[in-house]
Design goal:
Helix content is 63%, strand content 1%. The protein is built from 14 helices and two strands.
Length: 301
């Protein structure tokens, strides 16, 4: 059993403990090192991150509105509606474990070694349609994915779509979307997830600096998790939500090492860290900076 010695060693354990907690609940999220680096940031830096995240989202929405024609929106809306229906039917048919397996297989088609091994085929894939708008969108997706070897200014055709809409594209296996279109949607989803995580990590650091707690952080993560599509929730540990809720109820103060939740007994920081710690996965797929990348999938329960 680990024993926390007083004074300096206890203080050191506090800092390490906060990093571990932030990392353990941001499954496949911002890396431990990025959380650690952020922890020492000043309040001004936290405000700047929040402002940049907000501005970035507004720019994404503005770009999507300006670059999409009415016909493109109509076509995409029609396809998204059909994808949503298929996703709903899938979610009703498969249990949580089966959804996790399905997600792993489908993500394997658009990322990692399998994708790279068949990249020429994916780049040459053309939708089974004569609609010029859909053909142009598929071409745009491929150009965006290969932008490092092009001008670098190519736009993601799915920029600004909601997480549900992006998920419906990523995990659609009907053939409606090309592999590169699904990959482009996955990259946009990853980008949005990373932006949210940077923002909530900054808020968590501010919360800890102010109160010594992370209760609001846990609440924000739980709310975010509940909003994810079922096939994405299935990729998290089975007890992920209940574990977060227990931390919220605990209302733990990491400076005083006291649980301030009603009816809760005090416990040490070390006990807190090692009690039902959720399984950590590999990092969330990041938008690749070059043509060769091997993103990983979040661990199954």
């Amino acid at each position: 059993m680990l024993v926390v010695k007083p004074k300096l060693q206890a203080a050191f354990a506090d800092i390490i403990g906060i990093f571990e907690i932030l990392g353990s609940f941001m499954i496949g999220a911002v890396s431990y090192s990025s959380v650690q680096a952020s922890f020492g940031s000043k309040t001004e830096e936290i405000s700047r991150v929040n402002e940049q995240t907000s501005a970035g989202t507004e720019n994404l929405n503005a770009d999507a509105t300006q670059t999409s024609s009415k016909q493109t929106i109509s076509n995409l809306a029609r396809q998204l509606a059909a994808s949503a229906s298929r996703a709903e039917a899938r979610d009703k048919t498969l249990n949580r474990s089966e959804l996790a397996d399905k997600a792993k297989n489908l993500l394997g088609q658009i990322s990692g070694d399998s994708y790279q091994a068949n990249k020429k085929i994916h780049d040459g894939e053309v939708p089974k349609t004569s609609d010029p708008e859909l053909l142009a969108r598929a071409k745009q997706a491929t150009e965006f994915i290969n932008r490092s070897s092009n001008t670098g200014n190519e736009k993601n055709p799915f920029s600004g779509l909601s997480r549900d809409q992006l998920s419906n594209i990523v995990y659609d296996e009907s053939g409606t979307y090309t592999v590169n279109e699904r990959r482009a949607a996955w990259m946009e989803s990853s980008k949005q997830e990373e932006a949210w995580r940077e923002k909530v990590i900054a808020q968590a650091i501010a919360e800890y600096n102010e109160s010594g707690k992370l209760t609001n952080f846990f609440s924000a993560v739980l709310d975010h998790f509940k909003e994810l599509p079922a096939i994405e929730q299935a990729q998290y540990p089975k007890d992920y939500a209940s574990d977060l809720q227990s931390k919220i109820d605990l209302d733990f103060n990491y400076r005083t090492h006291q649980a301030e939740g009603k009816g809760k007994d005090p416990m040490s920081l070390i006990e807190m860290l090692f009690e039902q710690s959720p399984q950590q996965a590999n990092e969330l797929p990041q938008e690749p900076k070059n043509a060769t990348d091997s993103p990983t999938v979040r661990s199954n329960p």
